[in-house]
Each structure stands twice: as C-alpha cells, then as structure tokens.
Amino acid sequence: MASPYLDSVTSPATLDQRFLIENGRPFAELAFDPGSRWGRQHLLACRVIVRSSHDPILPRISSYVDSVWNRETDLPGAIAALIDGPEISYKGLGERQLVGLYGVSLGQVWVALRVCRSPGEFTRSSTPPRRRQQTVREDYVDSGAMTVGSSPLRGDVSSGDSKPSSKDSSIGYIEGASSKLPDPPEDRTLRLVSCFIRQILYHFPPPSEEDLAPTIEFRDEKFCFKGQTRESQKAVRATDDGGRLVGTTINGTCRVDNLGVTLLEAKGRFQIVRDGKPFLSDDCLAQMTCEALALRLSRTRDNPK
C-alpha cells in the first residue's frame, strides 16, 4: 500500500516517480466526478505537490498581523482563554449556564464542544414514551387485505412466501427512534469550527482605520463552485462547507470578497489516525484540492484576465 500522499509527494521528482509507479493518467482522461468522489488519481493528474512547511498566517494578511501582534509574546486574554479551555467541567451544563459563565462567544464554543463530545446529551428525554392507545373498529378493513384492480395483496408476490413486515407503516408515520437522532457529525463539527473562529475574529486586534486595511469574516453558507479547464474544457465542480472572507476598507466602507480565500471542509470521522492524532487522508486532500481548483476556475470564468 502506498504511503499517504501528504507524506510521499513533496517535490517534482517524487511526483514524477509516483505518477509512473501508480500508472497515473492525465486529468483530461479521468471521468467527471464531483469533489466528494475525488481520490489519489486526481491528485496525481492535477500534479499536486505538498509543501514541506508553510506559514500558518494567510499571505494576504500576514504583514498586517505582524504589525499589530507579536506572535511569540502578545496574546489577547479572550484568545488565551480559548486555548486554555474551560475552567470547570462543562458536562451537564446547559447553554444558558455556559454563556453566563464565559460570555456569549466563548460560551458558545464550549457549548459546541460539549455537543461534539456528547451528542444528544440534552436531546434525550427522561420521560417514558406515551403508551399508544389501541383502538379496534369492527367495520375497519385492513388495507393489506384489499385489492384494487390487478394489484396483489400485500405479501402476495411471485415467490409466494413473502409476509407482511412488522416494520410496515402508514404514509406520514416517522419511526420514533429516527426522529430523535442527533445532528450528523459534520454539522456538529461545523458549529464548533464556526464558534471557534468567530471567538478569534471578535477578539483579535481590530484593523486600523486606514483605507486598504484587511477585514476578515467567517462564512457559514455553503458555496458550489463550477469551472472548466482551459485546454480540455474539463468540468470541475465542488461544494464547500463554509470559509473565511477577506475584505478591504475603502472610504470607510468594507467591501468583502464573496468567494473568500479559505474554504472549509468537515468530515464525519477521522480516516487516518497516527499516534493518537488525525492525519489528512488522500481522499480528503483530493476533495479539498477539487474545491480549491473549482474556486480558481470559477474566478477565471468570471474574470478571464
């Protein structure tokens, strides 16, 4: 089994080597797939090379960050509290209690974290389910015993041995168990990320009043990006889970780039774990690559220059 792409393809030489060993194909020859179905072959076809190291600060705002914040010594108190974690256990505490203890933005972070770690903790009801009243009507005819035209009786099919299932239900009925399931893991993760990033944005040193000062915002909406490659006219399409927007202040008015500079992709589980830490899988890296490529191509389509 090949090593994860993130480890093995870090230079043009290793890319050419893996492309040859794994029988890589040009991007134009691959079948059209949405981003959620991209994999290692797409990474090779797009000739993706992983940088060995990079600055965690976005290039577009790095000069501004360095001018207002010393990364080594200067840390706002609210952000330090976020890194340190809650002072007391949040287990068993409701949203109102956590917000009262830590404030709105930080309290929301701990609420989202609690939900991620203990999904459904405050959605389970301790009240026993109400007993269903059985009503018997002598003039009632079971629909399973009725025939309309050439329709067979329920369970009367060609095999002759099928029986009505106890799980059959009338139209509009929702099984109780399914209606009480917690939110999907991706949704809980997205809420935690949203609260976490906003806590930082709210308490980071504000931008200067000068024109061209960058403004950073977080986007919850999911965007679908579509584009085509220039030479082969190959369609590329992907949908993200949110992102960060960077705007510019001009004459006192903030103008935000609606497409943004970073994209968010949430997953329901960790696909690879090393020494107790999550590691980026090939499929996840490929999906993120598709989203970035679709965003770039959509911008090229709207503004060819």
UniProtKB/TrEMBL annotation:
<feature type="compositionally biased region" description="Low complexity">
    <location>
        <begin position="158"/>
        <end position="170"/>
    </location>
</feature>
<protein>
    <submittedName>
        <fullName>Uncharacterized protein</fullName>
    </submittedName>
</protein>
<feature type="region of interest" description="Disordered">
    <location>
        <begin position="121"/>
        <end position="182"/>
    </location>
</feature>
